[in-house]
Amino acid sequence: MNCIAAYDFGTSGVKAALVDKNGKILAVKEKGYPLLKPRPLYVEQRPDDFWNAVCEVTKGVIESAGVSPQDVKGLSFSVQSFTMIPVDKYGNVLHNAISWLDGRAERQAQEINERCGAEMVRSQDYQSRILWIKQNEPELYEKTKYFLDCDGFLQFKATGIMAVPKDHPGVVTYHPDIEAYYAATLADVDRSKLAPVVEACKEYGRLDEKGAEDLGLVPGIPVFGGMIDVPAAAAGCGCGKEGDAHLYLGSSGWLSVLIDRPYETSEGSYQIKSIDPDLLIYGGCTNSCCLMFNWAIDQFYRKEHEMLGGKIFDLIGQEVDSTEPELDGPYATPWLFGEQFPVANVYIRSMFFNISERHTRAHMIRAVLECLCFSMKWQMELYTKDIGKEIREIGVNGGGSLSPQWMQMMADILQITVYVPEESRHSGAIGAAFAAAVGLGWYEHKDVKNFVKVEKRYEPDKGLADMYAIRYERFKRIYETVKDLYEDINGDMV
C-alpha cells in the first residue's frame, strides 16, 4: 500500500496522519506540547518538544495503521505560522521558539511602520521580531545563522537541510509594491538570516539516516516543501479555484480565500502563496478561536469535563440548543491574546457584556460561540471591501467544525451555506498530504476536489438574519467603545 505521512503541526500539538492515494486517512496519532509564558506578552515553546512529538506520533501512526515503513512514499508538514526559531550554522537551537501568539515586538512593529508611513507589519511579523532580538538580545542576533519557521526546523531535523517554505511569512509577503515593502521593512534586518526557500509541492530533500532512525521510517523517502497552516487547510477544505473560501476553527481561527493576483488590503490581512503557484490566498487570523472556546469550557464546565472527557461537547451542544438566539442576550469578545484580524490590537482582551441575573452558563457559552462567528463575519466583510467580491458559500474545517450547533449558528450569522468536508478535523494533514501527492505525480493542483469530499451542508435560517445583523453591529461597537480603555490598561505591558 502506498501512502503519505502528513503532519498538522499546530499551536498545542501535532497530528500525524497516514493518507492513501484517494485522500483517505488510514490512521491518526496526536501529541501535545506546552505553551510557555515567562513574562506578560511573551509566549514561547521548546523546539525539542516539537521534534520529540513528531517522532512519537510517526511511530505510533505506523503501528496503528498496520502498515510497513516501506509503504510511506513521502512526507509533508503543515505548520503553525509566524512561530520563529533562531538556529546557528549547525542547526542548533539558540532560543525557545517565539510563538505566533507572542506580542513582545509591538514597539518594533510601530517603529517600522512609522518609518514606512503605513501599517505594513505587525508584532507577529518576522521583521518586527528579528528587530526586537537585534535591539534587546544582540548576542543572540549575531549568533543566529537562520531564523527558521516550524516547517524549516522540522525538515532540517528530518533531512539535515536548512530552508523554509515558499509561503514563509518572513520571506514572502505579497504586497503590490514588493520591493518597496522589503526596502522599508527589512532595512534593519540582515536578509541573509532568512533561509533559502522551497515550494510546497517540490521535493525539499530526502530523509537522512538520523531523521529516519528518529522517525522509524526508511532513509531516502522524499520530504516535500510543506507549507504553513493556511494553504494546507485551504487545500484540505477542497479550495482549488479563484473565489473558493474556507474558515478554519482551531486554536486560532482564520478566513482564507483564493485570489488570482495581489491587492491592496486591510491592516492585519495577509496575502500568501497557495499550494497552486498560480493562485494566492487572501486571509486573516483571529488569535483566539478554540483557545477561547476551551477557556470557556474550563471556566464553566470543569467538573463535567473531568467526568465526561470528549463527551462534554455533547452536553454543551444540548445546553446551547436549550437557549434561543436573543437580541438582548449576553455578548462575549474573543480577544484572550489581543488580536491580529479583523482588528490589529495587541492591547485588547476578552470580556462578557450585558449579563443579567437570568443568564446561565448556557447563555454564556452561546455568547462565546456567537462572538467567534461575528469575528469571522467581520473578516469576510473586510475581504469584500478589499477584493470587491462576495463569498456565496464557505467551507469550515478544524476542530470547531465538529459541532453541529456551532456550524448552524455560523450559517445563520453569515447567512450563506456552510459546508464541512470529511475528515474536517484533520484538514491540515489532508492538505499537506495533497501537496505531497502532487509532488509525487499522483495529482495535479486542480484535482483537489477529487481528493476532498463534502460530509455535510448547513443552510442559513433566513428568519434570524435581521436579529443577528443587529447583534453583529453591536459586537463591532463594543470594540470601538472599549479599545482605548484597554490600551490605557495594558499599554505598559508592551
What does this structure look like?
The chain has 494 residues and is of the alpha/beta class. The protein has two domains: 3-225, Nucleotidyltransferase, domain 5 (2-Layer Sandwich); 230-494, Nucleotidyltransferase, domain 5, CATH 3.30.420. The protein is built from 16 helices and 22 strands. Strands 16-17-15-14-20-21-22 form a seven-stranded mixed β-sheet, sandwiched between helices. Strand 1 (3-9) and strand 2 form a beta hairpin. Helix 1 packs across helix 5. The longest helix is centred in the last third of the chain and has 27 residues, at 361-387. The termini are far apart. Residues 166-178 have low confidence and may be disordered.
- Head-to-tail CA distance between termini: 53 Å
What is the CATH architecture term of the largest domain? 2-Layer Sandwich
The major β-sheet equals: 7 strands, mixed
Strand content: 15-25%
- Overall pLDDT: 91
Radius of gyration: 22 Å
Shape: globular
- Low-pLDDT segments, ≥5 res: 166-178
Total individual domains: 2
* DSSP, total strands: 22
For the record, the CATH class of the largest domain is Alpha Beta
Structural class: alpha/beta
CATH topology of the largest domain: Nucleotidyltransferase, domain 5
Brief rundown of the structure:
Helices cover 38% and strands 20% of the residues.
Summary keywords:
about 500 residues, alpha/beta, Nucleotidyltransferase, domain 5, 2 domains, 22 strands
Topology, element by element:
Blueprint: E1 3-9, E2 13-20, E3 25-32, E4 44-45, H1 47-65, E5 72-79, E6 85-87, E7 97-98, H2 106-116, H3 126-136, H4 138-143, E8 146-148, H5 150-159, E9 164-165, H6 178-185, E10 197-198, E11 203-206, H7 209-215, E12 222-224, E13 227-228, H8 229-236, E14 245-249, E15 253-259, E16 270-273, E17 280-286, H9 290-300, H10 302-308, H11 312-321, E18 331-333, E19 351-353, H12 361-387, E20 393-397, H13 404-414, E21 417-421, H14 427-439, H15 448-451, E22 454-458, H16 465-490
Parallel strand pairs: 1-5, 5-13, 9-10, 14-20, 20-21
Antiparallel strand pairs: 1-2, 2-3, 4-7, 6-8, 11-12, 14-15, 15-17, 16-17, 18-19, 21-22
Helix pairs in contact: 1-5, 2-3, 8-14, 9-12, 12-13
